[in-house]
Design goal:
Blueprint lengths: L1 H25 L5 E7 L13 E5 L5 E5 L5 E7 L1 E9 L5 E9 L4 E3 L13 E4 L6 H7 L5 E3 L7 H4 L4 E4 L10 H12 L3 E5 L3 H5 L20 E7 L2 E8 L2 H7 L3 E6 L4 E7 L5 E5 L6 E6 L19 E6 L7 E6 L3 H6 L3 E2 L11 E4 L12 H11 L1
Parallel strand pairs: 1-7, 8-9, 8-10, 10-11, 11-21
Antiparallel strand pairs: 1-4, 2-3, 2-5, 5-6, 12-15, 13-14, 13-16, 16-17, 17-21, 18-19, 18-20
The structure holds zinc ion.
Length: 383
């Protein structure tokens, strides 16, 4: 009796274990560990929020997460030797990768000196007045080359760069057809632009700024955007961060924006199918920051900048783990992605043109711009 009473529950346990293992084999579960870290800019001075952090398993299934506003990330990852990748803006211009070993049910913490976002892009700026985006770029530990307003009329100069920053007040002269053509071709062939305040004149025309709709010059059609230099010196309190990704990356959805100079550009009208509104005035609902990937009307030629031959390509990856997602991979990895139906180019922008960001606010000469500075850092890293 004594032996039987022990044996019966024991046999029951064996049966349960067999049942479990049978279920597991019909739906295999990838063993995982956890990778934790904090992504910082190159010189370690600021965290990077909203960055994509990912690894692939052996079947090219994507495991990913995004960094929080404080740069922290925690990624559940398949076990084994993996390439941990950290990318912003689709990864063409800023990215870092590390070889890691993921152990089942263990947490690997990345040393903070290794999780720094590297600059891939060649970046240039045109100097302006009361606006110095280049100071923010260099303050993060990245490098940027100064070019002149006149250089924009020379495509052999323009096409060397992946990103060009156009400071407020940089533009001189109403009509420069070569400049307009070059900027159109630059964006069409993958170059990205950031323009602030009066530099809207590069986009839609005007001399040093835009007085009215339909200004002469520029390369973006006038029906897509009109701004007028009628803003009064003021602080807009509670400006709304209307773009969800931007709000997540920043860690806030409202901020005060100081316009310390009069005559700033008010967005008078815009095409909502062409521009994404990122930040808006809470009272008038006028956009204060907009972005587009829609421009591709220039002449298609070789990709601009340093990305053309760097051995990496931007693709739209799809698997059963979620929505299509834009990543940048080594070209040698492309055949395995092509095999499961990925496409070359960003998911939202298959024509491979670049991004244009425009803000009505900018970096003050005194640099004391509060949370606006975090938005400008985001722009730099996501072009
Ligand atoms: Zn893929």
């Amino acid at each position: 009796m004594r032996i039987k009473s022990i044996l019966v529950p024991f046999l029951g346990l064996v049966f349960l274990m067999l049942s479990c293992s049978k279920d597991d084999s019909s739906t295999p579960v990838q063993a995982t560990g956890t990778i934790k870290g904090k992504l910082m800019v190159k010189n370690g001075s600021k965290p990077v929020g909203g960055a994509l952090v990912f690894v692939f398993d052996d079947n090219n299934k994507l495991y990913y997460t995004y960094t929080q506003a404080n740069g922290d990330f925690s990624l559940q990852a398949p076990i084994g030797q993996r390439k941990l990748q950290m990318q912003t803006g689709g990864g063409a211009n800023f990215r870092t990768s590390l070889q890691v070993t993921v152990v089942k049910d263990q947490t690997l913490t990345i040393d903070s000196s290794l999780s720094r976002l590297d600059q891939v892009a060649n970046m240039a700026y045109v100097a302006g007045y009361y606006d110095e985006i280049q100071d923010i770029v260099t303050g993060l530990g990245y490098t940027i080359t100064q070019i002149t307003n006149a250089d924009l009329a020379d495509y052999s100069i323009v096409s060397q760069f992946d990103i060009i920053f156009l400071n407020c007040g940089a533009k001189q002269g109403y009509v420069n057809a070569a400049m307009d053509t070059n900027l159109a071709n630059f964006v069409t062939n993958g170059g990205s632009l950031y323009a602030s305040d009066w530099a809207v004149a590069y986009l839609t025309g005007g001399g040093s700024n835009s007085h009215d709709c339909g200004e002469t010059g520029g390369f973006i059609p006038d029906d897509k955007l009109c701004s007028k230099n009628i803003g009064a010196s003021t602080t807009i309190t509670g400006a709304q961060v209307t773009d969800a990704n931007l709000a997540t990356a920043l860690g806030f959805s409202a901020l005060d924006i100081e316009y310390n100079l009069g005559s700033w550009q008010n967005v008078f009208s815009y095409d909502a199918t062409y521009w994404d509104v990122m930040v808006s005035d809470p009272v008038s609902n006028q956009p204060l920051m907009i972005k587009t990937n829609s421009f591709s009307s220039g002449t298609v030629s070789d990709p601009v900048g340093d990305n053309e031959n760097d051995g990496w390509i931007t693709i739209c990856h799809t698997d059963d783990s979620g929505s299509p997602i834009t990543i940048t991979i080594e070209e040698s990895e492309w055949p395995s992605h092509e095999a499961h139906g990925d496409s070359v180019g960003a998911c939202t922008n298959t024509n491979n043109s670049g991004t244009i960001y425009y803000t009505t606010f900018h970096n003050h000469a005194n640099g004391n711009i509060g949370n606006s500075g975090l938005i400008l850092e985001y722009v730099i890293l996501n072009l």
